[in-house]
Predict the structure.
Amino acid sequence: MIKKVLRKIIFVVIRAFRNIRYKILRKHLINKNPSIISSDCFGGIASHNLGLKFNSPTINLYFNKEGFFTFVENLEGFLNVDLTEVKDSELEYPVGRLQFNEKTVDVFFMHYKTFEQANNKWNDRRKRVDFSNIYIIYLTAFVSEEDIARFDALPYKNKMLIADKNPTNSKNVVTHDVFLKKDYKPGEILTYKSVFSLKRYMDDIDYIGFLNQV
């Protein structure tokens, strides 16, 4: 019983210090209203850390590689069509599908219980996208030269590809050693470094400086 109470106290203290750290970081953010289009939860977590409004529908979800590239290559078109539910999905969470000009993109809502809930959030947030203030973020543990070339060709000024390596020395690629861990698990870069750490692995990346670019 005592150990359980102590663990709870320690957790509360650590959470308080984490919140203080993020409040301090917010003072360095100049761009207060970006639309972050992210391939996974990086954009949502960064927005939450910085106290930003979710000006993008890509919150609490993920895309596969081809889906994300297709989505951002035709962003305005896909944001103007409605999601339909993939009812034959074998996953435990809802999956939505977007179709635009014979192109199809599946959206995986792993943090939502129902498609209705996911669809409502998607629709609310897609209306907030500011096409003059867009920031593209793509994460991958295994990047190829072809992936980088395709990413570099995206028609956006502010974009960041976070990967295990940068074989082409692209200015848009940021590397992180966490991807090189033998036991790396998908999404681990978004987790805290330990139960006592104030920093997530993603906090090693200067996403505040990235968002401050104009």
Remarks:
- Strands lie at 35-38, 84-85, 95-100, 103-108, 134-139, 159-163, 173-175.
